[in-house]
Structure of LysM domain-containing protein:
Amino acid sequence: MAILSHTKSPVALLAFHALLFLCFKSEANCRTGCDLSYASYYVWEGSNLTYISNIFGRSITEILRYNPTVPNQDSIHSGSRINVPFSCECLNGDFLGHTFSYITQSGDTYRKVAERAFTNLTTVDWVQRINDYPPSQIPDYVPINVTVNCSVWRWRCVEGLWVVCDVPSSCGGDFVVRGGGV
């Protein structure tokens, strides 16, 4: 007759957890990204193509290529939207996104970066989650990471391009198709 022990050996526990890990191993939510994505960027008063170009790490010439209705870099109007190209990678096998390096300005908060600099293309939570600085102590003129998540509801694929918008209605109709340069 076998006598059952109520104590568990460390080897048995380790084997049990290894078995659970193998049985319930999750698949990556993405495998590849999108080489060409574009953001529908809201041009706020005081911003200009040089500023937008610096934030997204794209040349003004490249941005203008995706905005055929903008005749030149000096004619961008606040309150309008422009398409800004970038790549959307599979980050950590978990989601589609892109992490930009942003140099903080005097008085920046995670909220200002998410809502003003990146015009709600990301969230305060996303910016705060991937940076080590406490929200009330972000140093001036240091690089922080800003991740734009391409997998959230704001994204959809239009003729092979991923498009991001800060509100769903801003990606409607012919703005997306003609404005995307496709």
The beta strands are 34-42, 81-91, 95-103, 143-149, 156-158, 161-164. Residues 1-8, 10-28, 153-161, 166-182 have pLDDT under 50 and may be disordered. The chain has one domain: 34-179.
